Fold each of these.
Amino acid sequence: MNEFLRKKWEMAGLADDYIFNKVMLDYDICLEVLRRILPDLHIKKIKLPNNQQEFAVAPDAKAVRFDIYTTDEQGNHYDIEMQVADHHNIAKRIRYYQTASSMEAYDKGQPYEQADDSYVIFFCNFDPFQLGQQRYVLHKHIDEIPEQIIEDGQTDILFNVPSLRHDVDPKMQAFLDMIAQRKVEATDPLVVKLKERMAIVKRNRKWRSEYMRRSVYEMDQEMREKKIREGERKIRDGKLELLEGKRELLESKREIKEGQDRLKEKEQLIQEREQKLHENQQMIIKTSIVAMKALNIDETTIKKEIKEKFNLSDKEIKDYFAE
């Protein structure tokens, strides 16, 4: 395990959120990165970047922990995030980060129009919206007039780090290439600073130990989550099997009921046929008795003839002659 973690630490680059955070804590690097992301703002200075600053919108609300948080001389707020894995919740995740960041932009008693602007910036090791763009800049707009942007001071910027489109400024592209560990121009001052800073981070024993402890925790957490997901899957499968069993049971009951109904119908049909045969036999016997009487055959002979021919009991013979 220690050897695995050691190699993981040595191989980790800017795409690793821990390394990214420690590198971006450098004032000059953070300032230059923000300038490259937002050149039109002409940012002159920022507050010392804060690592893992936590905000809660309400006491009972889910807390959000920013990777890198800072403000500039104009009071604009910046949250910079490294998103390693795609959990398919990026849109709602950004909304919550923006909400937390925007809360800091409103001072008590301050008019709404004086609220500071808030920028949430995500560097994603995947295409966040699967639309093939290298950079996504999000603002609110009017649905009926899509080109009409609502200037509410909130801006979300997402970078698709693996993209090779080169749609961004060359200086911004250099930073993205550093994250993606692609070949970069060694003379770029930011590239030089990044390499120097990463070397400092990698030599820091405290950060290395913290990284390994966190990695162990994350692996344990991932294992627990995997077991939970596996348990949930088994529960879902069990429920599906139970539902399937119930369905099969209901189907069997339905088939049994249909079989019973068919059996009753056959029994009814047989009874009707037996009744019809009995009535026919009665009519034949009565007709035979009348015919033999018409021939002046004595009653004793008629009874004997009818009894033998139709296999009747003495009582049945008696009933016929009693009519």
Amino acid sequence: MLDVRRLHMLKTVAARGSIAAAAQSLALTAGAVSQQLSALRNDVGVDLLRPDGRTVALTEAGRVLLEHADRILAAVDEAESALAAVKGAVGATATLAALPSTVARIVAPALTALGSDHPQLAVTCLVTDQAQLRELALGTVDVVLGQRYHHLPDTAPRGIEVSPLLDDPLLVVTAPGQADGRPVALRELAAHNLAVPPPATECGQAILHACNQAGFTPTARYVTADIAAQLTLARAGLATALVPRTAIDPAAPGIRTAPIENRPIRRLLFAATRHTESANPTHTAVIAALRAAARSES
């Protein structure tokens, strides 16, 4: 009989590309993962993985088994959600993955509210801007607070349910003496030295796309994904930054913010879970708290 835990390990290795990376994400040793995969290989009687340079790849049998494993693991997830729905009570644990730029004004208020409304629930929060939806699909996290910029296509993996939370515009951030707070036409920024995220990031792509649509290539004098660094450079008068509204402390001293008058750049903040026919009360409670915190920002 196939072991569900071993199937999950196979799925994780396939997604991570190596046994070592899979072991790290599963909080296990590489030896323990190798042992379980060897047992799975013995269960099915055929090799499932093969060396591929410094990584491993699925054999044809591995690909076939993984297709079935996805359905088996989804069925297990469905069964757990159905049982939780029958119980009708919020559980004891949940794991949330959230963007660093959402922590102060959405995640922290949401977790505070959850602590008051559901004191038995302990939420582990993974603050990361890397591949949150992949972690959700792998079962590493239960709920994702993610983002999608409006010019980009929706790329949610199969089996992921997305709930929009908030349209979050980017604001123009400068030192107080360099602007008067009026709305800024994006074309005006052609003459500014900008502090922007790397072009490989979603935000960097969105800024570059919007500026190109406005007829210019931005002068990226400072390139960093660290929003705190962008704000520091703006506060010092060294650069103009374009930062999501919810990533800025409204009481932060030494900066002035202004909306973009035309060609606004917006990100959609969303909550995502794995799709199940029965709503899991714990995941529902986490999303409800995120939605309430987002509503206060709209």
Amino acid sequence: MSENAPGPGDPRGTSDPAALRPGGAVGGTGESIVVRKAEVGRRAARPAEEEQPQVFASNVRRRPQSEAGYDEEPTGVGRLGVVLGTVLAVLLVGSGVTLYLTNRGGDDAAAPAAEAAQTPTAAPSAPPQPTVPPIKDTAAVLPTVTGAFGKPAVIQVPKAKPDGTFVVKTLSQGGGPVVKKGDWVTVDYTGKDWESGKAIPGSYDKGGHPQFFQAGAGELIAALDRSIAGHRVGSRVLVVAPPAAAFGAQGNPQAGVGPGHTLTFALDIVRATDPAAVVQGTPVPAPAGLPQVQDHGRKAATITPPKGVPAPKELKSAVLIPGKGPKVTAGQKVVVQYTGLLYSNGKKFDSSLDRGQAFSFATGGGQVIEGWDKGLVGQKVGSRVELVIPPSLGYKDQAQGSIPANSTLVFVVDILDAG
């Protein structure tokens, strides 16, 4: 399976509210830090008519694309339903106008016809979205799952039809911490369509990847989103997801899931990260000539720019706590804590630690300022990194809220996880 093959996640281009962003409040309808067209033009051409700045992290967060690309929970009505409803409404209006003209007759028929045509009609109501049933740990019939944690599961579905129960059942108990709602989790998975008996793309497939998401955040189908919190890291969990917890009446052709089908998953909970966590380790002093950092645990660090040292013209970085995880690669989603301040006066303008909520973004895609992409790609997960970013890799000659134009920025970034 390729990196863009179907899998459990969200569709491209949707968004939901969030207030996590490196920077601070910017004037306008929402809080944002923006990258101007000119700054991202090197990465991808933009249409000539697009004049607005490109938001890279704002209070309208784009839902993260899953490695496998599964759709979100199904909507309540399809496009065909809307079209048919609209046609029916038009026909009803037309019938009313014809009957009125027939009964009235005479030369004055045109005026009432115009009045009737202008009368608003009620839009067809959409059927309610199916309610996800409550989670239970058993059902009348269940699939059998064999195989060890960390390896592909073998799922055998019964010949009997599923009874519509949403099942989440621990198959093997892990020894790690209990996952809380809001934790960032890494999950390996094997899946099967109950009705067809066919396997659906999984993370253990060739070219597959673990699913990396925030438990209970509503970013994935309920089959995954609601199945992880409350279970321990290292556990394998069986999930039987009826259509309302999967892809509903429409199914998911990309993933090979039929309309109205029930899904079965074996989920391996590999890792969990508290959104208020910081990296662990003993910090070392920053090199001479760079801002010095005083650690305060889960509170924003005190960062002191050096006196009498001109701001650097090029990106400077230093590892304050070396991580032991894999290196961050371009295109990965990373979860970080950060504190940012101005080099000129040491004034803090933003910190995720003040909110107790880590920030996530995809590297190398222009979602953050260029200094972040250049400075964090190649660093190891678990590291604390100091970045001194010149204006050319930051916001250039554009003021951003409390950040003046042509500012050199200092960030201390904890790389909590990547997936």
